[in-house]
């Protein structure tokens, strides 16, 4: 039989129980939510790791393709297996695709300076390329000063004095570019100009000749300055028929059509048919994570080495 006092006690216990439930439920929800987020975070990190590993494997695959090419051929042209773009292919829980580009199909901006000194022939080449793109030709002078070892401004140049007057001040690098984005620190260069130049120029260590078999007409015309537009078209038609083995092959095959005997642009090592620098772009997806990996490869002998690589 219930005593008259047991009812309030019972009520208090119920209220306490409800209070506990009221306090614990949000706490539990928070804990479950945190755990859920933590698991999702773990999953995303795992997916990202897998996607990155897959991309690195893609770069190694590109190195193997280029090593195999070095074993089989002395020259490089767009008809070779390395030049085949790989469309996105399914792999377990994801996909992978990518492409190899001959970086010597573009003009190497570091060519403007050799052993710390401006090379007037190369500066003239870059001026022609700029003119063809309707960009200010002074950009060649400011780049040459940025690259050359001295502090004396050359024609259209800019050295320390120009950069120290800026806010914040800085100095001219007086050495090679390591990345196209370095251009943005040089007098006259804007993001729009760099974007316009990007398809035609590259940044490679040291002096690198242009590949006659892979270069586009605009860059080829800037380097082979003593060939007319019609002659450049003839060269391109000829290489599409059969890629050139070397410079002598170009001379002998064009002998009937073009007098290549007195062409200063063919003297020296300004053009070639064998490339040592290639870039690789690999894109992968694993689960929810997607990555792009870009790498610059140097193939001096057989197995290419990675000069740099970056994820974005
Ligand atoms: Ca080759
Ligand atoms: Ca300088």
Structural overview:
This protein has 312 residues and is α+β, with helices and mostly antiparallel strands. The chain folds into two domains: 1-104 and 276-312, Pantoate--beta-alanine Ligase, Chain: A,domain 2; 107-272, Ribonucleotide Reductase Protein R1, domain 1 (Orthogonal Bundle). 42% of the residues lie in helices and 17% in strands. It has eight helices and eleven strands. The strands form four sheets. A five-stranded antiparallel β-sheet has the order 1-2-9-10-11. Helix 2 crosses helix 3 (138-147). Bound molecules: calcium ion (2 copies).
What is the domain tally? 2
Shape: elongated
What is the end-to-end distance? 76 Å
Query: What is the CATH topology descriptor of the largest domain?
Result: Ribonucleotide Reductase Protein R1, domain 1
Walk across the major sheet and give the strand order: 1-2-9-10-11
Order of helices and strands: HEEEEEHHHHEEHHHEEEE
Note the main attributes of this structure.
alpha+beta, two-stranded parallel ribbon, 8 helices, 42% helix, elongated, Pantoate--beta-alanine Ligase, Chain: A,domain 2, 2 domains, binds calcium ion
Secondary structure elements and their pairing?
Elements: H1 6-72, E1 86-91, E2 94-102, E3 107-108, E4 113-114, E5 117-118, H2 120-132, H3 138-147, H4 160-164, H5 191-197, E6 201-202, E7 210-211, H6 217-223, H7 229-241, H8 247-254, E8 271-272, E9 277-286, E10 289-298, E11 305-311
Parallel strand pairs: 3-6, 7-8
Antiparallel strand pairs: 1-2, 2-9, 4-5, 9-10, 10-11
Helix pairs in contact: 2-3, 2-6
Bound molecules: calcium ion (CA) (2 copies).
């Amino acid at each position: 039989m219930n005593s008259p006092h047991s009812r309030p006690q019972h009520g208090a216990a119920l209220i306490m129980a409800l209070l506990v439930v009221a306090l614990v439920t949000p706490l539990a929800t928070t804990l479950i939510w945190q755990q859920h987020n933590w698991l999702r975070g773990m999953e995303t990190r795992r997916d990202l790791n897998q996607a990155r590993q897959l991309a690195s494997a893609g770069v190694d695959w590109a190195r193997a393709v280029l090593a195999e090419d070095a074993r089989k051929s002395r020259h490089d042209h767009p008809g070779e297996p390395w030049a085949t773009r790989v469309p996105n292919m399914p792999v377990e829980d994801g996909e992978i695709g990518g492409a190899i580009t001959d970086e010597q199909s573009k003009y190497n901006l570091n060519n403007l300076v050799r052993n710390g000194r401006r090379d007037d022939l190369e500066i003239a080449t870059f001026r022609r390329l700029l003119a063809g793109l309707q960009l200010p030709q002074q950009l060649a002078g400011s780049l040459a000063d940025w690259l050359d070892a001295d502090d004396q401004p050359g024609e259209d140049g800019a050295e320390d004095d120009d950069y120290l007057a800026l806010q914040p001040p800085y100095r001219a690098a007086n050495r090679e570019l390591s990345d196209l984005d370095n251009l943005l620190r040089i007098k006259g260069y804007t993001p729009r100009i760099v974007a316009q130049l990007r398809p035609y120029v590259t940044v490679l260590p040291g002096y690198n000749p242009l590949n006659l078999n892979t270069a586009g007409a605009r860059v080829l015309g800037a380097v082979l300055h003593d060939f007319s537009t019609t002659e450049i078209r003839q060269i391109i038609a000829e290489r599409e028929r059969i890629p050139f083995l070397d410079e002598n092959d170009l001379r002998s095959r064009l002998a009937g059509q073009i007098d290549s005997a007195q062409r200063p642009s063919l003297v020296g090592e300004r053009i070639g048919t064998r490339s040592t620098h290639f870039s690789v772009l690999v894109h992968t997806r694993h689960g929810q994570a997607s990555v792009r990996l870009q790498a610059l490869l140097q193939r001096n002998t057989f197995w290419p080495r990675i000069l740099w690589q970056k994820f974005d």
